Amino acid sequence: MKALVYEGPRQVAVKDVPDARVEEPTDVLVKITSTNICGSDLHMYEGRTDLEEGRVLGHENLGEVIEVGPAVTRVRVGDRVCVPFNVACGFCKNCERGFTGACLTVNPGFAGGAYGFADMGPYSGGQAELLRVPFGDFNCLRLPPDAREREDDYVMLADIWPTGHHATQLAGMEPGDSVVIYGAGPVGLMAAYSATLFGASKVMVVDRQPDRLRLVDKIGAIPVDDSAGDAVEQVLDLTGGEGADRGCECVGWQAHDPSGTEHPNATMNNLVASVRATGGIGVVGVFVPEDPGSPDALGREGQVAFDLGVFFQKGLRMGSGQAHVKRYNRQLRDLIAADRAKPSFLVSHHVDLDDAPEAYRHFDDRDDGWTKVVLRP
Ligand code: NAD
Ligand code: ZN
């Protein structure tokens, strides 16, 4: 089958690789029809992880079931499914409680499994013609009959909409709250979209990319351009000096930090400063060490310092981590199906799998207008 493989820092290529196939009785085989490029792919693409060469990338996948293993009972051949980026068993301590992003069966000792990722198990990605989905009954989200016409909406259920939503939940958002979001990339835009949909009174999104700030405005949130002035001061001005009730980190480690500080903790300190005392912060941006092999890297998470003193004085609370996609995706799917949500508003490009390397370059360079790329194998 054709697939996009990692070949080294900023090098990906479309190659012929062995077909994905049913390997375990609980596997489902999916023919991929839509698969997105994600900001998370860039951690691997830019060479910040120890991903081995030849691995197939891609964790935001949607397609048609073409084969099921003998132990699969719920999912059927012909079903159209969206596949959460988490690989989860459904029966470990964490999965039982809904923490499917931290499944203990598929990646014991660390934090969950995912397709086409460094450090998250051996699973091959879906930027390919075929994808093997382990524990298929648990991991496949079946889609309604209009799925074929609305793939751009439903494919956002694999990762970025549940992830943006997760950021607001980690922050403890309730209806009526004001929310500040750092980062207007796909994840930040989805966090803003969720906050608006789930009843926030005011949603402010900080970035400096004009094309992305325009989308913030389009969904009824307030763009905060941090190239026009200090982000924290702008947020304080917009909240009568109090600060926002909730804050979301949707940036993570950035190779091109538009704040110009070149320092990955800029967003953390800004969040601590722009959320009101006793408010909540949700961190979904991923911080990876620049050199994963270096002895001073703090485990696999990278070192990010922020002002714990102010965090403490303000009595803030914080949640973080990979999204537990399964926890939210059925509910979010039903909002799409009922025509109450259209997360496809951020799709900027549809690209053939053959042209994926070019699309990676544009997305990585944050070229104007390259917000979200959907690959069509
Ligand atoms: P992206 O890189 O396209 O978007 C990041 C945005 O942040 C960009 O628009 C950039 O201009 C902006 N930015 C950079 N520095 C900033 C700063 N100091 N202040 C404000 N904005 C700043 O990526 P994305 O696809 O939106 O993903 C964002 C992060 O979320 C990545 O780290 C990704 O790995 C992570 N992610 C996490 C999960 C999860 O489950 N926790 C899932 C998906 C993605
Ligand atoms: Zn993703």
UniProtKB/TrEMBL annotation:
Gene3D superfamilies: Medium-chain alcohol dehydrogenases, catalytic domain (3.90.180.10), NAD(P)-binding Rossmann-like Domain (3.40.50.720)
InterPro entries attached to this UniProt entry: ADH-like_C, ADH-like_N, ER, GroES-like_sf, NAD(P)-bd_dom_sf
Record-linked CDD domains: PFDH_like
Superkingdom to which the source organism belongs: Bacteria
Pfam family for this entry, one: ADH_N
Residue span(s) of domain Enoyl reductase (ER): 8-375
Protein family (similarity comment): Belongs to the zinc-containing alcohol dehydrogenase family.
Keyword flag Transmembrane helix: no
Keyword NAD: yes
Cofactor: Zn(2+)
Protein's name in the database: Glutathione-independent formaldehyde dehydrogenase
Sorted UniProt keywords: Metal-binding, NAD, Zinc
